[in-house]
């Protein structure tokens, strides 16, 4: 999966921001949008290792860890549980439900993690006159404003519910897709991806292009503004994650793998299993035709943002 190499922030730097007062006997971690692994297991184990290192002097006796894996109720939790590492040092539980709703008792969590999930909106905003577009923003101001407003509402809801569930001083580590401030979607990599993918579906299926999807990539300024207005967290860190492979993710086949990692479920839902391979193979062909434009925009405008928040 493409997420394996972009999941590269170091949780040890995040855990140093945890206070050392009243070290808990049970340290509770929640991963929101866990899917079926293995990336969630890697992230969780890194967090646990970092917490143990942080508290080894303050807490002579071993801390017990409880990890909650959250995703929508239609997630394949059976596969997730079957894939749990046998050597894990934590108690595991699944928590089905939308992370835009309250899922845990008040002040019950110490560390929250979410990786590449918060760009998915809770619903598709309604915008008149722009039907039939795969593009989230479609380069139209009305659509941009509608999706930005929906993301603002959803992210505020996420922050408010997590603020209720985290203990004071608890941390939220978020890894998100982002786009640079001031670069129109038509000029960045996401715009090129969606245009190519949309034309691919039109040519291949003759079914019209995919309906608007509930996805939005915010800018750093948008995120900072929403968090500040929310008022429940301080921003301990917000930084662009370095990704050396981003500079070489420019072949048509690599781009097709990247798109498939994100959109396979969506394509399968709309067109059925029998069309999945054909669609993404055709996307690779279309991407090859536009590789010079897409490849440069990947290098110029793809961003993975790491955000560390502390509950006030």
Automatic annotation (TrEMBL):
Note the superkingdom of the native organism.
Eukaryota
One GO MF annotation is: S-adenosylmethionine-dependent methyltransferase activity
Alphabetical list of Gene3D superfamilies matching this protein: Methyltransferase, alpha-helical capping domain, Vaccinia Virus protein VP39
According to its UniProt entry, the protein's GO biological process terms are: methylation
Keywords carried by this UniProt record:
Magnesium, Metal-binding, Methyltransferase, Transferase
For this protein, the record's Pfam families field holds: Methyltransf_7 (PF03492)
Tell me where the transmembrane regions lie. none
Q: What is this protein called?
A: S-adenosylmethionine-dependent methyltransferase
